[in-house]
Recover the amino acids of this structure.
């Protein structure tokens, strides 16, 4: 009994006891699935019944699969649009909210924030009605102002679908980065701004020489989040177009879902999943490397 | 120059207010219109007569059940997260053991793992455990999904606690377990409320695991219910809008009371890229 007590008192054992519950869930549902999916990717498997080992056949198929590469390209477009539009707009809005001249900032902030409380399904459902060809907000508005030829089949036209969905994605994620930047701006020591004012710096100069350099780490973090988020993106596109029409808005993750849970090709689906994992890892590490090097050059 | 900048700022701010606010106004107003009225009236028009019956109909169509299911699943998952994450964070922040840093990085790496790589293994595991199509089957994935951010928040908080507090407890003869229970837990209450509220919001909106792990309508949670509701009642648009409003409303109310915790959770999860 005493021995047990002593054992429990040692740090090593206590550490194990304290970590055990979290490691149990995390190991089972987050870590173990990575090698498991890799293992499944070497098999032909319907999800139920026998797995048949087929070596690298799935991977060979993936490399030659035009739909996978199309969705990969769509993911890259999403990366570019996300980083290129979400971050600048979010930054401007955050600067606006942080300026003390606006008494209404609190109200603005609350309304800006609301899209963050929507589930992706709610956003998908809502934007489907906004884009509806006949009764949707967008087309009704365009017809009201006389721009009849601008009214389009936003989600049904393969040339437009991906970009239409990106607007909805921006609607949801700009407030997120805005909140991030706002928190970072508020954390900048007030003295820096005051010193700049005394030196005669005005609006845009203060922004360029104080706010922007101080925000650099936050902006890099936001860019990495945006990059990884865009590479693994799934739910709003799934809820709005399901990847259609004709794979026009297909992403790697929606494609993975279809192959796995619609066609029940779990082996091939796992191959796509592992590919998403590898691509996200390689690109985010490369990005971090790149930003680190460029900051060393400064 | 000054005024030009201010004007640009205001124009952008007002534009974004419209972009965010108008769709919200639109779904709320549409949710109170009649089915035919939606098609015939202007999108700018207020309902001729507020059809509050839409909301009642949505509830009767099963939303009360989905609502209850979401509440049960998120509550249980968040409870487990608060306990297990604070315990793990306590060990990571305070105990000296060889793999402390490794374990911490492993948890943080969880924020970057695309959840789709877990989908098939989790689906398979859930089936084998006999938990497929049950609310219990969602608990495991939800807990593990919430752990990284929660542990990160707790570790940061515990490291800020003056070590003297614990030293005093040791002098009084307390062991690791008593210190966690009597010293750490009471002090980290603010972090617990951040973790609980933030994860509640995140899990309330979760969709992918529910889509893959549930099938019968009696088990659906709110997101899945709304998704299928649109499929079934797609033509009665005001009804779908009412369902949409109902699914977001609890979170908007939560935001009014707990915006500090929600924002803290969101920014905390992103500091570590």
């Amino acid at each position: 009994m005493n021995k047990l007590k002593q054992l429990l008192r040692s740090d090593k054992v206590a550490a194990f006891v304290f970590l055990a519950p979290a490691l149990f869930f995390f190991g089972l549902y987050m870590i173990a699935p990575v090698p498991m999916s890799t293992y499944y990717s070497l098999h032909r498997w319907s999800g139920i019944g026998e797995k048949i080992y087929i070596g690298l056949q799935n991977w060979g198929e993936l490399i030659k699969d035009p739909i996978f590469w199309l969705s990969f390209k769509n993911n890259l477009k999403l990366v570019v649009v996300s980083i290129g539009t979400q971050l600048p707009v979010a930054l401007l809005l955050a600067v606006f909210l942080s300026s003390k001249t606006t008494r209404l900032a609190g109200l603005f902030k609350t309304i800006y924030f609301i899209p963050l409380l929507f589930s992706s399904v709610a956003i998908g459902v809502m934007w489907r009605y906004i884009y509806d060809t006949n009764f949707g907000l967008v087309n009704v508005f365009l017809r009201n102002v006389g721009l009849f030829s601008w009214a389009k089949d936003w989600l049904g036209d393969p040339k437009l679908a991906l970009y239409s969905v990106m607007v909805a994605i921006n609607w949801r994620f700009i407030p997120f980065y805005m909140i991030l930047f706002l928190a970072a701006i508020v954390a900048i020591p007030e003295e820096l701004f005051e010193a700049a004012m005394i030196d005669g710096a005005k609006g845009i100069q203060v922004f360029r020489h104080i706010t922007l350099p101080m925000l650099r780490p936050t902006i890099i973090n936001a860019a990495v989040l945006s990059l990884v988020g865009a590479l693994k993106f799934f739910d709003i596109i799934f809820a709005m177009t399901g990847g259609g029409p004709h794979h026009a808005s297909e992403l790697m993750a929606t494609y993975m879902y279809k192959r796995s849970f619609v066609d029940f090709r779990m082996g091939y689906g796992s191959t796509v999943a592992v590919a998403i994992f590898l691509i996200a890892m390689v690109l985010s590490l490369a990005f971090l490397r790149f930003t680190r090097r460029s900051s060393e050059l400064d | 120059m000054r005024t030009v900048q201010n004007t640009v700022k205001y124009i952008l701010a007002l534009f974004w207010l419209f972009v965010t606010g108008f769709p919200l106004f639109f779904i709320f107003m549409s949710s109170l219109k009649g089915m035919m009225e939606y098609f015939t009236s202007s999108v700018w028009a207020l309902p001729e007569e507020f059809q509050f019956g839409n909301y009642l109909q949505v509830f009767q169509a099963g939303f009360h059940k989905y609502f209850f299911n979401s509440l049960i699943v998120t509550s249980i998952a968040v409870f487990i997260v608060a306990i297990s994450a604070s315990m793990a964070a306590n060990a990571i922040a305070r105990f000296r053991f060889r793999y402390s840093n490794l374990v911490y990085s492993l948890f943080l790496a969880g924020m970057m793992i695309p959840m789709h790589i877990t989908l098939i293994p989790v689906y398979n595991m859930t089936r084998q455990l006999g938990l497929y199509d049950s609310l219990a089957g969602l608990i495991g994935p939800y807990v593990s999904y919430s752990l990284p951010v929660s542990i990160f928040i707790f570790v940061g908080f515990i490291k800020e606690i003056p070590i003297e507090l614990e030293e005093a407890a040791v002098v009084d003869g307390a062991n690791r377990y008593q210190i966690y229970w009597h010293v750490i837990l009471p002090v980290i209450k603010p972090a617990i409320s951040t973790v609980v509220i933030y994860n509640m919001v995140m899990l309330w909106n979760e969709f992918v695991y529910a889509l893959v792990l549930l099938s019968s309508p009696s088990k659906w949670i709110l997101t899945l219910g709304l998704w299928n509701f649109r499929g079934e009642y797609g033509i009665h648009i005001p009804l779908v809008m009412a369902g949409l409003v109902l699914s977001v409303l609890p979170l908007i109310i939560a935001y009014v009371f707990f915006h500090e915790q929600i924002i803290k959770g969101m920014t905390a999860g992103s500091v570590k890229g």
In short: Residues 66-98 of chain A form the longest helix (33 residues). The CA atoms of residues 193 and 206 of chain A lie 7 Å apart.
